[in-house]
Each structure stands twice: as C-alpha cells, then as structure tokens.
Amino acid sequence: TFNHKKRWQHQRTPPSPSRFPIIGNLHQIGELPHQSLWRLSKKYGPVMFLKLGRVPTVVVSSSETAKQVLKIYDLHCCSRPSLVGPRKLSYNYLDIAFAPFDDYWKELKRICVQELFSAKRVHSIQPIKDEEVKKLIDSVTESAFRKTPVNLSEKFLGLTVGVTCKATFGVSFHATVLNNDRFDKLIRESFLFLGSFSASDYFPNGGWIIDWLTGLQGRRESSVRDLDAFYEQMFDMHKQGNKEGVEDFVDLLLRLEKEETVLGYGKLTRNHIKAILMNVLIGGIGTSAITMTWAMTELMRNPRAMKKVQSEIRNQIGNKSMISLDDIDQLHYLKMVIKETWRLHPPGPLLVPREVMSEFEINGYRMQTKTRLYVNVWAIGRDPDAWKDPEMFLPERFLDNNIDAKGQNFELLPFGSGRRICPAIYMGTTMVEFGLANMLYHFNWNLPEGMVVEDIDIEESPGLNVSKKNELLLVPLKYLDH
Ligand code: HEM
C-alpha cells in the first residue's frame, strides 16, 4: 500500500476549480487574469491547475513555489509556449522573449546581454536620457507656469519612447516614416496583440477561425506589415549613413550581421534583427513608463512618503540643474520607493508564460511536459505570508532587509528570475530612477482642483504589461530653490 500511495501521490495534479467542457476554466479568467488567478489561488492554493481551453496550465502564487519553478526546476521549464500573437511579430520566434529554449536562444541572449544590455551601453546612452529628460522638464515647467495639469502617464511614455527610439535607431521617431501618432498607435497595437486573448492559443485545432472572424488576425497582420516597413526604413537610413552620433542598436546589430555572427543553426539575418528590435521596443517602452506612473500615483496617495523622497533628493543634489547617475546611487529612499512600487504594481504581473520541457514535481504535484506555467508575481507581492501589511505602501519595509528586485529574492520578482530573467534590469532600473528623480526634484505636485487624495484610483488596464487604467493628471509647481 505504501508503494501504491506513493504512486498515487506521484501522479497528483494540483488542486483545480471545476471546469466546463471545451472551454475548461477560461470563463474564470476575466479581463485582469492576475487578479482572478490571485482570488482563485486563495481558495485552491499556491500551486493550482487550470485547463484553459485545450491547454493544461499551472499557476504558482507564493515565493516558495516561484523559487521551485524559476530556480530549482528552471532547466525543466524555461521554454516558452508557441503563442500566436507573438509569432508574426517575432518572425517565427527569432527573438529573445518568445523563442523556445534551445542553442539559438542561448547564444542570442548571451550576445545581447554582452552587447546590447551591458552597463557600458547603458552609460553610453546617458546623454540621450539627459536630453530627453531636459525636454520633459521644459515642457512640465511650461505647465507649471500656466498652472495647468500635466498628464503624467503620457509624459512618462513620451520620455521612454524618446529614449528608446534614439538609443535604438539613432533618430527620434519624428524623423521616421511614422509620425508621432502612428508610432504610438503601432506600439500600442503590438502590445495588445502580444497580450491579447487569442483563440488559437487555447484551441490549437481551429481557434484561428475565431481570430479570423473577430478580425484579430487581420489587424495583427497589418500591424506586422507597418512595423516591418518601419524596420526597413531604418536599415536603409543606416546604410546610407545619414545619421550622426554614437553607435545605436541598429548599427550594432548590422555590424553583427556583417561579421557573419553565427547563432545556433545559422547566420544572423535581417529577420533576426527585426525580431530583436521588436523586443527592445516592447520591453523598453511600456515597462519603465508604467513603473514611473505607478510610483507617482502611490506617492500622491501617500504624502508622507512623497515628502520624504523629495527631501532626500533635494538634500542630496543641492543646487544642480541636472541629476547625474552618480547622484542616483546615493538616493536610498528613492530606490525603496521603486521597489515598493514594483511589489504592488509589477508591470508584468504574470511574467511571460513558460512551458514545461521535462517532468518535475512541486509540493508533490506533478508538472507534466507541455504544461503552460504562470508565476503570479502580482499575487506574491500581496501575500501576507511574505509581506507584513501587504496592502500598505511602505517603502521603509526595505530598510532592514536586503531584498532586491534582481531575481534573487522570490518575494519580489518584477524582472522574473532564472534563465528567462529580463536581460535589461540595469537599463530599465536606471531609466525609472532617472526619470522619477528629476520629476521629484524639479517640481512639487498637486492634485487638480476639486480632487482629494482619496480620489486617486489604482485601477488597472489589461494586457501583457498592466498599466494604470485612468491617466494620472497632476498640477506641477516649480521647485524654485535652485
Ligand atoms: C522597468 C523595466 C522593466 C521591467 C519591469 C521588465 C520586466 C520583464 C519581465 C517580467 C520579463 C519576463 C521574465 C520572465 O519570464 O521570467 C522580462 C523579459 C524581457 N525583457 Fe524586460 N523589463 C524591463 C525593461 C526592459 C528593457 C528596457 C528591455 C529592452 C531594452 C527589456 C527586454 C526584455 C527581454 C528581451 C525579455 C525576454 C527575456 C527572455 O525571455 O529570455 N526589458 N522583462
């Protein structure tokens, strides 16, 4: 009987809410899956099994089970499922984020970590950040002068679009085929397609019919065509050499192409470059802007923390017109504010889905090959077993522990962890720190007339990256002490 029990345990699937035929648990997912899954996990536990359409799915929702997935059994489950949305945008999974785990991906990620996301390159794009932040300060100063509200959600997005576009292509998007609005729309649509519900992802044999009927397929294809034309224009421009300045990401990738860099099964081609550029655009723009917007939202809701972070920055910086990267190293409270923001508002609340490659067990439950795996980082940030008073915004909680956000502490995982960890942690963090520090240093912030602190909401908008649903409007007041 002992053997029998052991075998039974060995085959156990994790607890699971009851499901309907065909759709399985899809009806329980809702518009904001991380929230629905958080609620379900309270009932079914930190390892939970769902059938999403035809796809067996496991969701883990505690720091301990996240560690099992991302660290202990990383090598068993660090592949990605072949999702329909990302397929075309990634030129058949030639990118870093959606490519399956194989030799090609390993080499590509290694090269990109070395060349694209290195500390050296982050420092080399600092002049671009200086320039874009200065533009932002000037435009906010103008609103301060006129006493009109600033749409901070929009401003932060403008900042990250400006920096990413310059660093990647060497030009601002005004100089491309896409004017301001079209660039914006294209990025937004691509985001949507990467995160959107696609019937084909849950019903592999026929879901495409639904996508075709709903028009999703057509819109996706037109978005891919526009982006492709944009990349081509960028290649032409770089070939003609009619741009000045330092080596940008396109220069670098074209150089790797010319050097006939071999990746896994073949040479780096234009399609590989386009797929990598897609990751840089998608990864670089939304995540940092979303973080800055949430940070300002939480600081406005918590005036005590706002006062403290502004005093720290102003005492530290003194009278300077520009904050440098070295100054930022000293801003300990600001760093805690950002970590606290990531705890409550991780831009990728479910990370990017993984796929089990070889069987393993968590808490005695069997993870079968081909199972889709989600880590609910959003839920972990709210877990009372991991955090005291989880619902409170309290940057001080990081004072007496060494918890950082770089994937070593499984209660705080804004960048994921393990082999699939975000390769641009330093690039993303410095962008957020720099943008926020400047906005907090140069301005005091007030609510628009008639609004009180309790009116500031934290509603979320759905997608692969979860942002603040209602835009954050605040009235700036120039800090005149310098
Ligand atoms: C605040 C900023 C950022 C946050 C919070 C963030 C978050 C994340 C998360 C959660 C993942 C998935 C990790 C996983 O599945 O375990 C990821 C992956 C990725 N990120 Fe970031 N990211 C940020 C900035 C950036 C930037 C600036 C870039 C590029 C310029 C970038 C490029 C990527 C890429 C290529 C991957 C795929 C890695 C892989 O699958 O191996 N990210 N990021």
TrEMBL record:
Pfam families: p450. The keyword Cell division does not apply. Keywords: Heme, Iron, Membrane, Metal-binding, Monooxygenase, Oxidoreductase, Signal, Transmembrane, Transmembrane helix. Its cofactor is heme. SUPFAM superfamilies: Cytochrome P450. InterPro entries: Cyt_P450, Cyt_P450_CS, Cyt_P450_E_grp-I, Cyt_P450_sf. Coiled coil: none annotated. The chain crosses the membrane at residues 276-297. PANTHER family: CYTOCHROME P450 71A9-LIKE ISOFORM X1, CYTOCHROME P450 FAMILY 71 PROTEIN. Belongs to the cytochrome P450 family. This is Cytochrome P450. It comes from Arabis nemorensis.
